């Protein structure tokens, strides 16, 4: 292989490696893709576009998207709803050895629920600068003072996750401006 071809090959490999955070598996990517689909469904219903999938050994145990508006439930975050569904599937609240893929870094409520459910791995897409309780503002999922900690992998498919949220809120602001009547 020529030096030029070798250099191009190294650059492609490096780009692929940097695109996926360390510890990310093919299964994580598949589950994040499903979470993104669920987030699109939430956006179509007028909900904040966040999707979550709980899985173990390639099997989906519970999945959900935000449903706070439809359910009038302040705990209707995708992660909490997915946890409830997964607990029903396994027949108990302990979700040991399970992973969750969620499109947005969990808030304090959701991070606390993941800790209490004993989730083993959290894989999230976009960071949340306003309420992120895993890496951005707090580190609840790895806090040694709590009774359970989990592996956290952030930034998986971050760009499509963030873009979905950006587009949703941009459209919402535009609709709000258009609805305002100017006297």
Please describe what this structure looks like.
The chain is of the alpha/beta class. Helices cover 46% and strands 16% of the residues. The protein contains 6 helices and 5 strands. The chain has helices at residues 3-19, 26-44, 68-71, 78-90, 108-116, 158-179, and strands at residues 51-56, 59-65, 99-104, 121-126, 151-154. A 5-stranded mixed β-sheet has the order 2-1-3-4-5. Strand 1 (51-56) and strand 2 form a beta hairpin. The protein is globular, with a radius of gyration of 18 Å. The model has no long low-confidence stretch (mean pLDDT 91).
Summarize the structure.
The chain is an alpha/beta fold and 183 residues long. The protein contains 6 helices and 5 strands.
Helix content: 40-55%
Mean pLDDT across all residues, rounded?
Answer: 91
Oligomeric assembly: single chain
Structural class: alpha/beta
Number of strands: 5
Order of helices and strands: HHEEHHEHEEH
Unreliable runs: none
What's the alpha carbon Rg, rounded to whole Å?
18 Å
The main sheet orders its strands as 2-1-3-4-5
- Number of helices in the DSSP assignment: 6
Largest sheet: 5 strands, mixed
What is the terminal-to-terminal distance?
Answer: 71 Å
Give the percentage of residues in beta strands. 15-25%
Furnish the topology, listing elements before pairings.
Blueprint: H1 3-19, H2 26-44, E1 51-56, E2 59-65, H3 68-71, H4 78-90, E3 99-104, H5 108-116, E4 121-126, E5 151-154, H6 158-179
Parallel strand pairs: 3-4, 4-5
Antiparallel strand pairs: 1-2, 1-3
Helix pairs in contact: 2-6
């Amino acid at each position: 292989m020529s030096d030029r071809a070798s250099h191009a090959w190294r650059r492609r490999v490096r780009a692929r490696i940097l695109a996926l955070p360390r510890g990310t598996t093919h299964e994580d990517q598949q589950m994040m893709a499903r979470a993104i689909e669920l987030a699109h469904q939430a956006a179509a219903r007028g909900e904040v576009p966040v999707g979550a999938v709980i899985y173990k050994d390639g099997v989906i145990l519970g999945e959900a998207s935000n449903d706070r508006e439809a359910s009038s439930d302040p705990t209707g975050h995708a992660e909490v709803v997915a946890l409830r569904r997964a607990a029903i599937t396994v027949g108990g609240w302990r979700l040991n050895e399970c992973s969750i893929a969620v499109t947005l870094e969990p808030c304090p409520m959701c991070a606390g629920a993941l800790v209490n459910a004993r989730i083993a791995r959290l894989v999230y897409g976009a960071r949340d600068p306003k309420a992120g309780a895993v890496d951005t503002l707090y580190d609840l999922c790895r806090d040694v003072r709590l009774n359970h900690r989990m592996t956290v992998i952030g930034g998986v498919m971050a760009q499509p996750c963030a873009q979905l949220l950006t587009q949703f809120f941009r459209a919402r602001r535009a609709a709000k401006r258009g609805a305002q009547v100017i006297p």
